[in-house]
Amino acid sequence: MKDTTPEVDARYGDMLMQRSGEERLKMGCAMRETARAFVEASIREQNPQATPEAVRKGFFLRFYGHEFDAESRAKILAAIESAGPPVTR
Fold first, then answer.
1. Cβ proximity of 81 and 88 under 8 Å
2. DSSP annotation of 69
3. Contacts of 17 by beta carbon, 8 Å cutoff, 6+ apart
4. Which residues of 8-18 are buried (b: 16+ CB within 10 A; e: fewer)?
5. Which residue among 42, 52, 57, 82 is least crowded, i.e. fewest CB within 10 A of its CB?
6. Which residues contact 12 (CB under 8 A, 6 or more apart)?
7. How far apart are CA 44 and CA 39, in angstroms?
8. Cα–Cα distance between 57 and 46 in angstroms, integer?
9. What is the pTM of this model?
10. For residues 71 and 43, is the Cβ–Cβ distance under 8 A?
11. Is 54 exposed, middle or buried (0-12, 13-18, 19+ CB in 10 A)?
12. How far apart are CA 18 and CA 46, in angstroms?
């Protein structure tokens, strides 16, 4: 759905391009973190007892699952399960 007029869309693009590359990168990183927080909250809402592996599988399926055929998805999900705990920052 596109409910923004071309004029407003162009103005917004111009405003974004006036920001420095660093500012745009920070904005993109913040948007990614927000998206991850929303997805994690959704996963945990559906399964409050979700293990870290279940959350990682949920992230994969939500963000990338549609890009793989069923066989490849199954292999990736199996690898996620056998990978152990995630590396923390």
1. no
2. -
3. none
4. eeeeeeeeeee
5. 82
6. 4
7. 9
8. 13
9. 0.73
10. no
11. middle
12. 41
Q: Please provide the size of the chain in residues.
A: 89
Confidence at residue 65, expressed as pLDDT on a 0 to 100 scale:
95
* Amino acid occupying residue 77: L
CB 39 within 8 A of CB 59: yes
Structure tokens belonging to residue 39: 């997805």
CB 80 within 8 A of CB 57: yes
